[in-house]
Amino acid sequence: MPVIEVNNRGVHIQELNKGAAETVLLVHGMFSNLSIYYFNIAPILAKHFHVVMYDLKSHGLSERIENGYDLNSMTDDLLSLMERLGIDKVHLAGYSFGGLITLKMAARFPDKIGKLAVIEAPDPNDDKTRDIIDDYSREFLEHYVTNFTDTTKVKMGKRQMERNHRMYEYLFHETSIKSDMILEKEFFSAAEISSIQQDTLLLYGTQSNCLGAGKKLKNKIRGAALLEVNGDHNIPIQEPVSIGNIIEAFFNNG
Amino acid sequence: MDAVVSTAKLNSNEIFDLMKQFITEVIGEEFVEEMDITMESSFTKDLEMDSIEIVSFSEKIKAHFGEQIDFTGWLSNMDLDQLINLNLGTIVNYIEECQ
């Protein structure tokens, strides 16, 4: 179980195809974990790339931490992880909140980032910022339900209910995650978004309520391409093979 | 230790016991005690394993069997219905065939 120490904190990572010349780093979303990439998207990327996945703080199997969920802290964490692994430069892909982290990373540390794939990053300044945060929890639940229900709608069992409940209780009531995210609401208007120079691919679901955010980013990031994939905000779960193939082709081309 | 790659070929009973040991390590003894784990037990419905627990379980198989079994690759070829209905017996058969 690779839980490594980064700045004296336990971080769960998974790596594939370590010997490859170039590295792809994958960042998951809020209330999710690296498993969103592990089974489909990462193995596709690992055909050509060294792939690194990690669990964000207090998510998946990484250590619980009370503070530092703003984008500066999250990108500090990511840079420390790269340094700890001895990786100088990566192609970066991030989903939802992870997409915001990748954008911030490209703006703050442009020399460290090759290409950028942003999947379903929401605009933190949506009219309903609070709703967006609530959406994050629905996204998690939907992910859960998709994985744990079939046509007969099997109910979430007692152990998983307790596990989920504990995670929500912790993140919502014992960490700064909500207040830190609200502080980021001007992020899409900040000059740093327009300063992003990397080749950028924006992937959004055709039926996603975040599609408007994708269009906004396309207008702000020079040369960015916006690609719509059939589905809603949950496209990595709905279309994992398509997403994997599209990102693989994007990172591998040129 | 699950980091030692086994070279001895295991029969289906031995594989079943090993899988049961991995499941216990992943979800905890206190939960396993309440369950009747059989070859028919499904990962999601009966054992209630979520995706990050299945990652941990997959890593244990990788660490134990090494290159001879591409467990993650095998899982990634399944559609959602197959994953939901995946039971321990199917995994035991797969590992037995791969050895």
From TrEMBL, chain B:
InterPro entries for the chain: ACP-like_sf
Protein origin, superkingdom: Bacteria
The name this protein goes by in its record: Phosphopantetheine-binding protein
Species of the source: Pedobacter panaciterrae
